[in-house]
Amino acid sequence: MNRPESKPLASDDCGCPIPEKNGSHEKTINLALQGGGAHGAFTWGVMDRLIEDGRLRIDGLCGTSAGAMNAVVYAYGNMVGGADGARQALYDFWKTISDTARIMSPMQQAPWEAWSGTWNMDTSFSFNMFELMTRAFSPYQFNPMNINPLRDILDKAVDFQVLNRCQETRLFISTTRVRSGKVRIFTTDEITLDVVMASACLPQLFQAVKINGDHYWDGGYMGNPAIFPLFYHTDTRDVVIIHINPMDREELPTDASDITDRLNEITFNASLLKELRAIAFITKLIEEGWLKDEYKGRLKHMLMHSIRADRILCDLKVSSKFNSDWGFLTDLFNRGRATAETWLSENYESIGKRSTVDLKHEFFDIGTDHVG
């Protein structure tokens, strides 16, 4: 199996893959996968390393946009081929995206960008022309046939009728209902090709996806991803969030493109931050004994973990989310694997015992003159 710089799986005499357990018992986690275009290949790398490790079983998966695609491809691959099948399915999915984009995508890096070693496309003529077009025209005008090659790629990667019967992994895909502006979560037995495409439907680029008489846009506006279904519909306490939109930026953005990029990151982190604030409050109630005895059993004490991309992706701008070059995707994949390797070595023993992220200190700035 040819994966970018991934460790080959051992095999038995029949050539069947032997999952690695590293001499330890298996623990169960839920994964929460953010969306972010091509940066979803970072999540692919993280998942590949977690699967390869062999000590973790994924119970529930919530995802948005690229996170939703990683989620359904993983679940289907794992359902039909086990851990090795999941890794291969993710590899094939991302490789097909790159191969297709090389031929069909109007957005390509400028030669000097490739020569300079950057993966951003801010000075690319094709990217800038496309960005100007999407500001002047809606997708109903510049793409009246609603052509989206990604739809065909995903349709070939996942048999959704089979996926609907999946018992191994519980799926929760976030979308934004256009009419009401509310988040709509689709569960395993409801998930179709249209649902996943709706979860990744940026309204400046694609026509709204119609499902059962309602229209939907990208789930990142209201849940990137929505974590609450993992509390209510799984028995697992540990939630590992895989971030691909940096929370923190050290430098102040001062030019127009940098300001737009930072606003994009803030927008697509906003819904997640609201949920994390609520989780922090509930955790405080439980840990500090604020609940009456009759209410203590009604709230689940969640253990939160976070695989952050702030430093590892800080060199990338929003334009790189449209870059599907295989060199870039494999670079992101390797960054994800390395990040997951470090996270496992530092946090594996805490899974099932304690949270490894301090929500209040890592995600909120609450001064002494504020209430919260």
Automatic annotation (TrEMBL):
Gene Ontology molecular function terms on file: hydrolase activity; transferase activity
Segments carrying motif GXGXXG: 35-40
Gene3D superfamilies from the UniProt entry: Cytosolic phospholipase A2 catalytic domain (3.40.1090.10)
Keyword Ligase: no
GO biological process, one term: lipid catabolic process
Pfam families: Patatin
Motif (GXSXG): 63-67
Domain PNPLA span(s) in chain numbering: 31-231
Residue interval(s) of motif DGA/G: 218-220
Residues annotated as catalytic: 65, 218
Keywords tagged on the record: Hydrolase, Lipid degradation, Lipid metabolism, Transferase
Keyword Lipid biosynthesis found: no
Protein name as annotated: Acyl transferase/acyl hydrolase/lysophospholipase
